[in-house]
Amino acid sequence: MGKTRFIALLSAAALVGAAFWACSSTEYVYLDEKEPVTVLNAQLNTMDKTHCILLSESASHSIKALQGARITVTVNEGDPVIAREETPEEYSSYTQFCGVYVFDAEFRPGDSVRIEAEAAGMKVRSEVSVPGPIEIVSIDTASVLRTEYDDMGSSLAEASLLVKARVKDPDGGRNYYRVRRLIEEYYPDGYYHYSFNPETFKMDRLFEEGPLTESGYSTFDCSEEPLISGIAAAGSSSDGETVDIGALFEADNTWSVFDDTSFDGTTGEYVLRLYIPYWNQYQSLTACTRSEYLVINSLSFDEYHFLKALDASDFATFISEPVSMPSNVEGGLGMVSVESVSVARIFSLEVEVVDEEDYYDFPSWWDID
To answer: In this structure, how many other beta carbons lie within 10 angstroms of the beta carbon of residue 176?
Structure first.
């Protein structure tokens, strides 16, 4: 087995997995192949207005960035948009392996999106459509006390926020989704943080001027069952009652995806039960408003299938030769997708402002300036 070839392909797959791209076919790659392969990856969605495309070349000994390419994006046979080569801050870690290309566009459900790339004598393309969004009908919350266990097996009571979200499928066909938790913190007056100074070997206390907003994605705590229920259709065995289906996030569901294939005999509406741990214990050194949102991304079947295949339980399959490389890119390899995004706010609250001594438990080896 060509180990270097495997490492290059595994690196490509890791980049794909990190950004959650879709696939619609499977390429079988033998690890001792010597010819370089062009890899085109893009994760697009209906919420963002600026999008990134990653372009690289996977060879027998390495994976490297492809720069200087001409990439066009066409929506519904309109005028092509030329992507510009640049590196937004959130993509800076990719530049060793990928050329980063940026373009502006707004996508709507049902749109057809085509990406074509040319560089160094190669030409690749991919065409995908935008799935319909799920409707978040309502969200109810309640503070609950749950029992958690530490590494030593000791139990402790944890205050969690139970989130009950009622959602409804778009009509027709099977539907596939990914659930995420979006956190936004608004600092009207700025905030303090610490950064290691390699010149002085000390921790510098820094202040970022406000107003500013920090945001990022997290996951829900879903360790209790049942977590997902269908609203039964009238005339079924349950006659309109809520029917427990099972766990939403199982141990092998790394990417928090689910589908509606278990909901036959229901109205297309179901209830998700999710938990936010430690929700009433947020603290800050400066004034801060924290908002959390339920985000559900609608996926194509191919993207759903690809994300499920990336789970750790399928790793043994991936390292078997030939390597199974899901792809929807003609002329190369890669994953291109456009997700419809549905968002609903769960709560907003003013974070408790505390003194620095109460906020930080400084390690003894920190030397603070």
So the answer is: 22
The pLDDT of residue 233: 65
User: H helices within the chain, ranges in order?
Assistant: 3-19, 301-309, 315-318, 356-359
Question: What is the pLDDT, as a whole number, of residue 193?
Answer: 79
Distance CA 175, CA 161 (A): 28
Dist. CA 304–CA 255, nearest whole Å: 9
pLDDT < 50 positions in the chain: 1-11, 18-28, 30-31, 225-226, 313-320, 366, 368-369
> Do the beta carbons of residue 320 and residue 9 sit within 8 Å?
no
Q: Distance between CA 302 and CA 244 in Å, rounded?
A: 27
**If you write DSSP's letter for every residue of 77-93 in order, what string do you get?**
T---EEPEE---GGGGG
| CA nearest neighbour of 303 among 258, 263, 335, 333 | 335
For residue 288, the 8-state DSSP code is -
The CA angle 320-325-326, to the nearest 5 degrees, is: 135
pLDDT score, position 239: 57
Please count the other Cβ atoms lying within 10 Å of the Cβ belonging to residue 212. 13
pTM: 0.79
Burial of 51 (0-12, 13-18, 19+ CB in 10 A): buried
* CB-based contact 83:71 (threshold 8 Å): yes
Q: What's the pLDDT at 248?
A: 60
Residue type at 104? D
Strands 202-208 and 257-259: unpaired
